[in-house]
């Protein structure tokens, strides 16, 4: 037996090789935490809202999982599922924008980078938008802006509270000025929603940056964020070069923004649904005094002479 054969036999019979083979067999059953490296049973991890039980690291989740976590079963009604971009600028870099869109649609099963609809949270009806970072980094183009604007207008028309879960790298460069226009469009729709004294809560997840941060992500009545989420407009290096000074290590984290008054609360994902339920319940519109008087107290009492 040659030396090479001996090494091959050692490799085949080594415990490390056996463990690797077992992990390959059990692929999908276990998930490795990208922060602490602990292997967790995927089913248990999903039951814990995809939060590592060892280090509390919040693993990245996408729109389908987020809706499952937040919305009461059987109450989700999607909106504008067939809305797609038409490549208005005929943009092309290494590949055409239309081909890139098609690739992401096939890869993710999504039409674009946001899902919108209505559903219940703890029995309370609301309008919900969930951005999905898988689709071109959650970038905001004309479809994302249009879907969110239609969602906001639907919430305004039907007197619903609004929640948008943000996860984005910013505006989508392949649509140029049309992407930048979405900031104004969504902001105007939110102002009309605010004029009706309706609640809007953005949830900032990792990452929320660029034009999304500059527009609807920071316009909420109550702004929530997940722990250690990266939140900012320009990148850290750009800011350091502009200011010509070293920034703190926790700069542009949810905790840093909370300490400086940019957001209202950092909420662990395991508590997010209950927190939203309480906030929405607290901000339910009060009935008119005359309606309560007539509906609950019966006929108006005679005035004393």
Automatic annotation (TrEMBL):
Catalytic EC class: transferase
Record EC number: 2.1.3.15
Keywords for the protein's UniProt record, in alphabetical order: ATP-binding, Cytoplasm, Fatty acid biosynthesis, Fatty acid metabolism, Ligase, Lipid biosynthesis, Lipid metabolism, Metal-binding, Nucleotide-binding, Transferase, Zinc, Zinc-finger
Pfam families the UniProt entry points to: Carboxyl_trans, Zn_ribbon_ACC
C4-type zinc finger segments: 33-55
GO MF annotation: an example: zinc ion binding
Associated pathway: Lipid metabolism; malonyl-CoA biosynthesis; malonyl-CoA from acetyl-CoA: step 1/1
Residue ranges constituting the CoA carboxyltransferase N-terminal domain according to the UniProt record: 29-298
GO process annotations (BP): fatty acid biosynthetic process; malonyl-CoA biosynthetic process
Binding-site list for Zn(2+): 33, 36, 52, 55
Catalytic activity field: N(6)-carboxybiotinyl-L-lysyl-[protein] + acetyl-CoA = N(6)-biotinyl-L-lysyl-[protein] + malonyl-CoA
Reported function: Component of the acetyl coenzyme A carboxylase (ACC) complex. Biotin carboxylase (BC) catalyzes the carboxylation of biotin on its carrier protein (BCCP) and then the CO(2) group is transferred by the transcarboxylase to acetyl-CoA to form malonyl-CoA.
Family from the record: Belongs to the AccD/PCCB family.
Protein name: Acetyl-coenzyme A carboxylase carboxyl transferase subunit beta
Name of the gene: accD
């Amino acid at each position: 037996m040659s030396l090479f054969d001996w090494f091959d036999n050692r490799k085949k019979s080594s415990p490390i090789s056996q463990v690797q083979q077992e992990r390959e067999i059990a692929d999908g059953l276990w998930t490795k935490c990208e922060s602490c490296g602990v292997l967790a049973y995927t089913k248990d991890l999903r039951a814990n809202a995809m939060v590592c039980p060892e280090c509390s690291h919040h693993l990245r989740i996408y729109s389908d999982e987020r809706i499952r976590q937040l919305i009461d079963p059987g109450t989700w009604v999607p909106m504008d599922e067939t809305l797609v971009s038409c490549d208005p600028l005929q943009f092309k870099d290494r590949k055409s924008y239309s081909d890139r869109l098609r690739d992401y649609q096939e890869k993710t099963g999504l039409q674009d980078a946001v899902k919108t609809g209505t559903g219940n949270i703890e029995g309370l009806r609301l309008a919900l938008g969930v951005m999905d970072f898988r689709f071109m980094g959650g970038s905001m183009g004309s479809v994302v802006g249009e879907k969110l604007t239609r969602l906001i207008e639907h919430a305004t028309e039907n007197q619903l509270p609004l929640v948008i879960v943000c996860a984005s790298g910013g505006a989508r460069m392949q649509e140029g000025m049309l992407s930048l226009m979405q900031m104004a469009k969504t902001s105007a729709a939110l102002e009309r929603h605010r004029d009706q004294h309706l609640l809007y809560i953005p949830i900032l997840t990792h990452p929320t940056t660029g034009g999304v941060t500059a527009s609807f992500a920071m316009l909420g009545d109550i702004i929530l964020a997940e722990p250690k989420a990266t939140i900012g407009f320009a990148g850290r290096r750009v800011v350091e070069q502009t200011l010509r000074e070293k920034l703190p290590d926790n700069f542009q984290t949810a905790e840093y923004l909370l300490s400086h008054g940019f957001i209202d609360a950092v909420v662990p994902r395991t508590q997010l649904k209950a927190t939203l339920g309480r906030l929405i319940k607290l901000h339910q519109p009060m009935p008119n005094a005359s309606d309560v008087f007539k509906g609950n107290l019966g006929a108006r009492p005679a005035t004393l002479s």
